[in-house]
Known about the structure:
By secondary structure, the chain is an alpha+beta fold. It is 23% helix and 28% strand.
Amino acid sequence: MSILPSPRLTPEQYLEIERGCEQKHQFYRGEMFAMSGASIAHNLVTFNLAGVLHAQLKDRDCQAFVNDMRVHIPSTGLYTYPDGIITCEKPRFQDDHFDTLLNPQVIIEVLSPSTENYDRSKKFKQYREIDSLQDYVLIAQDSAIIERFSHDEHGNWFMVDAQELGATMELPAVDCKLPLADIYAKVEFPEVTKEDLAKAGLFSE
Length: 205
């Protein structure tokens, strides 16, 4: 008995289905991928991020979106939902639904154990195809660390990080700052065990 392959969706079919769904899905190469729920820490960080960005951008000609704004990368076909987006350019959308942004200047992802490798590798590779993107920011949820990946005029990407609650991450592309004390307000970090240190090669009996 033969098994027929599942039919691939077109981007138009995906958008029609997605706009009628309560759950969000990423879309790539004809397939929809459900996005899993977020932890308490992830939600707190994202909520704090929204507050920090609102305070700095409310009187400026910039737009910031958290969680629900879809981004499309035409050169790769990916549709996805970053945890945070900022643009100080005039927003460009895919169509008159105004729910799929094409020109983010800053993309922010809050790292989760299940998505960290993807966010750092394959997803970042696709994000680099966005001409308008200047900063890619990764926020850890289990420790106070924010990393920013930026590129020079030659297209070479480099990373700077900010660690500990007294530090601040600068976002020069949009003239914003992310004070770690504000981003991690009310977030409780998991206790580091001997097993964790041993896995990292930092402890031995």
